[in-house]
Amino acid sequence: MSDTIEARTEAIPFGASSISKHTVVLPFGGEKTLTLETGHIARQAHGTVLARVGSTVVMANVVRSAKPLENADFFPLTVDYREKHYAVGRIPGNFFRREGRPSTAETINARLIDRTIRPLFPKGFSYDVQVYLTVLAMDQINPPSVVAINAATAALAISDIPITGTAAGARIGRVDGNLVVNPTFEERENGTLDLVVGGTKAAVTMVECGSKFLSEEQMLEALQLGHESVQALVAGFDQLAALCGKEKIAFDEPHVAAEIESAVKELAEKECAAVRQIQDKKAREEGEDALRRRVVEELTQRFASGPGEEPKFPNLKNQIEEAFEALFKKSVRQMILQDRVRADGRKLDEVRPIQITLPFLPLTHGSVLFTRGQTQSLGVVTLGTIGDQQKVDDLMGLSNERFLLHYNFPSYSVGETRRISGPGRRELGHGMLAQRALAPILPEDSVFPYTIRVVSEITESNGSSSMASVCSGCLSLMEAGVPIKAPVAGVAMGLIKDNDAVAILTDIMGMEDHLGDMDFKVAGTSDGITALQMDIKCAGLSLDIMRQALEQARQGRLHILGKMQEALPEPRTELSPWAPRIEIVKIDPEKIGDLIGPSGKHIRGIQDSTGAKIDVQEDGTVFVCTSDKAAMETARQMVIDLTASPEVGRIYNGKVVRITEFGCFVEILPKKDGLVHVSELDFSRVEKVTDICREGDIIKVKCIEIDPTGRVRLSRKEALRDDPNFVPPPQEERSERSSRPPRSGGSEGGGKPHHHDRGSRDSVDRGGADRGGDRGGDRGGRSDRHHH
Q: Are strands 663-669 and 712-715 parallel, antiparallel or unpaired?
């Protein structure tokens, strides 16, 4: 396909005038194209773009407040991504039948967009900005998430909001060893890489990745292709902005006055050097806060040089604090770049001390307390049945999640107070990163048919709590006895860059994350990467630097894996006694109805009588779950019996359900019985069936025939003969010794030939008719008398 960009403007009649519709068509990987349209929809927003790939359509709307927020010390950006069920012609399956709060997947996509566009805004921009992404149509072939990233960045490009550059996003997959740009859902499902790259023409600013043990070089190759794809899209967005011709609002980036910077430097430079070397996080933060307050007080309240003089900067507290932040940041960065020493005294590639306590909690299925420096995660695993899987209702339809990882970050972990509420975007994002890191090492459900939930409780935090969650999660899985494929560890990397001076930091603290130029999280096994997340704050990050960062991350990861292996070399061979046991029984899918029974009667009966939990799949897989060994075996056998078919030659312990003159009917399987003809009840003549058995008795019988219609013929006599302790009766011994041929005629009344076996078969084939049964019985009796 050609790499050319098609751009056009057309007039759409509207009343007495017309509306200008602007369109740009861009290559989007393979034979796909990305079409961006604007001018004809949602015209009151400051920027609106309709993005289309195949039949997947996403609308992006960007709006800003009329005035900047006063005294704002943050950028008030809100990004919302929502999927509408009408996009695939479905009605939401919840009680209200309308879309509610965003799902975890929608929140993760919103974070991807936020992380891509946030670096574009100029420093000090305090207008309230909202970005709305709505999935209007989805063809279930082309994923809407990256389409949404590009719709958002294009809407910003054509709006009047000032940005420092145009951005775009691309997804890279790896299918059959080949890299694919913006793969389809099917290609993503069958691939070993799912990499999302966001950035500008100059630099990559955001990376989110899950992979199946890719090497560092393979990851670098994919990152390079992702940035090249981003650069091609940025050129098209700039053309769309030129077609729209909307002028950006005036905005001057605020600057701190040089005299304030000088005054702050004079007061605090030496003390900053002392505070930055305090190793304890809380003590360092308290020292920094105390120094900041003293500098602000000195310059806003106290006399400059003597009595009677006004303070130097009475109404410029914000600028003074900003100057102090810049000075402290510069001090820390210089220490790292020049002295190659970090605030806590570590070398650049040194991992903080690690302590692992396991098992940590009683009664849980698996628990570990993982501590790395001043970051601590309590990992807890709970194993459940297939019925515990999370049901997901999204644009791809209904599905079930077998593996869940929940990350909790309470305020006490950083010594702060905060209103307790549900998980926020940050918690969902960190939890998904850890889940993505651990998912490739889990055993297949055919081997380990459990629903697995991992919870990471962050009890202390000083940087990289998501990577601590990977470590605690992996160890708690091993502690729970989950047969993982290989241990996984994670480490957060940082970067300090000033012109040509570069320092890559292993296992960064919170301060290094805040003051550095990169937050780069890498998780994986000793063989390869399973998850990667990166946010870059500086431009011009070369592939050589990224290669060095990935290699240093690999060394750090191997160090942490070594510590984990010392604590727990391999998964426990036994599950916790508190965990449920699950056995798999395979049945014929056509027998599922027999197992469930009318209105669930049969399956409820098994559960009520044994206490086991039974889950049935459409393919005939039945999961039997209980912690009671005896109940497990009973429930398992009941499942087999309910769905089994009679087998010729097999012996059953059956229940006599009906007595007739010609024999008895014995239930050998639930709702399945067969006839034991009177001649098959014993070796000698049986005058009355009730001499052998009565209704309700349990007798041993052998299946000797199943006719084409499915009717079953049973024999108690043959079952007795198959008993290892069977002793042939005397009359049978005499019969075997006798060499006299059978007579051709009957000895009593009639003189017809005797066909004992045929008589028995006739009685069964005729459905147990009284007349046939009587004849068979008579013949059997005459035959017995003849031989005797």
A: unpaired
Token pair of 77, please?
């950006």
| CA 362 from centroid of its chain's CA atoms | 27
Output the pTM of the full model. Answer: 0.82
What's the structural domain count of the chain? 5
- Do 536 and 588 lie in one domain? The reply is no
| Among the listed residues 333, 360, 266, 249, the one whose alpha carbon sits nearest the alpha carbon of residue 304 | 266
Q: What does the buried/exposed string (b/e) look like for 277-306 if buried means 16 or more CB atoms within 10 Å of the residue's CB?
A: bbeebeebbebbeebbeebbebbeeeeeee
Q: Quick one: 478 and 563 in the same domain?
A: yes
pLDDT of 775 above 70: no
127-137 and 77-83 strand pairing: parallel
Residues 445 and 303 in one domain: no
Dihedral angle sign, alpha carbons of residues 257, 258, 263, 269: positive
For residue 263, give the CATH number of its domain. 1.10.10
Which CATH number goes with the domain that contains 623? 3.30.1370.10
Tell me: the pLDDT tens digits for 125-149? 999 999 999 999 999 999 999 999 9
Among 610, 627, 643, where does a domain finish?
643
Q: Which two tokens stand for residue 524?
A: 């994986």
* Same domain membership, residue 281 and residue 408: no
Do residues 164 and 292 share a domain? Answer: no
DSSP string covering 52-67: EETTEEEEEEEEEEEE
Residue 490, C-beta contacts closer than 8 angstroms, at least 6 positions apart: 434, 437, 464, 466, 467, 468, 469, 470, 471, 521, 522, 523, 524, 531, 557, 560
> How confident is residue 731, by pLDDT bands cut at 50, 70 and 90?
low
Tell me the per-residue pLDDT of 46-102, one tens digit each, with 9 for 90 and over. Answer: 999 999 999 999 999 999 999 998 878 789 999 999 999 999 999 998 888 999 999
Contact in structure between 101 and 231 (CB atoms under 8 Å): no
Question: Within a domain: residue 572?
Answer: no
**CATH number for position 737:** 2.40.50.140
- Rounded to 5 degrees, φ, ψ at 173 are -115, 170
Task: List alpha helices for 516-644, DSSP H.
Answer: 543-567, 592-596, 601-610, 629-643
Sheet with 581-586, strands from edge to edge, namely 581-586, 621-626, 613-616
Confirm whether 481 is domain-assigned: yes
Whether residue 518 is contained in a domain is answered as yes
Under 8 Å CB-to-CB from 413, ≥6 apart: which residues? 376, 458, 459, 460, 461, 465
548/632 same-domain check: no
Distance of alpha carbon 338 from alpha carbon 345, whole angstroms: 14
Q: Which of 279, 305, 339 represents a domain boundary (last residue)?
A: 339
The token pair that represents 240 in the structure block: 């769309």
Phi-psi region of 104 (alpha: psi -120 to 50; beta: other; left: phi over 0): alpha
Pairing of strands 451-460, 397-401: unpaired
**What's the CA dihedral at 547, 551, 556, 559 to 10 degrees?**
170
Predicted confidence (pLDDT) per residue in 410-444, tens digit: 999 999 999 888 899 999 999 999 999 999 999 99
Nearest to 768 by CA among 695, 663, 681, 666: 663
Q: Is 470 helix (H, G, I), strand (E, B) or coil?
A: helix
Q: Is the dihedral of CA 344, 347, 351, 357 positive or negative?
A: negative
Is 251 contained in some domain?
Answer: no
What pLDDT, on the 0 to 100 scale, is given for residue 430?
Answer: 96
- Dump strand ranges (E) for 361-470: 366-372, 375-384, 390-394, 397-401, 403-408, 451-460
Helix 317-339, helix 258-275: angle, nearest 10? 50
Q: How far apart are CA 379 and CA 645, in angstroms?
A: 47
Which strand (E) or helix (H) includes residue 112? Answer: helix 104-117
Q: Which domain holds residue 171?
A: 6-244
* 3-state class (DSSP) for residue 608: helix
Report yes or no: 147 and 136 within 8 Å, Cβ to Cβ.
Answer: no
The model's confidence at residue 306, banded by pLDDT at 50, 70 and 90, is: low
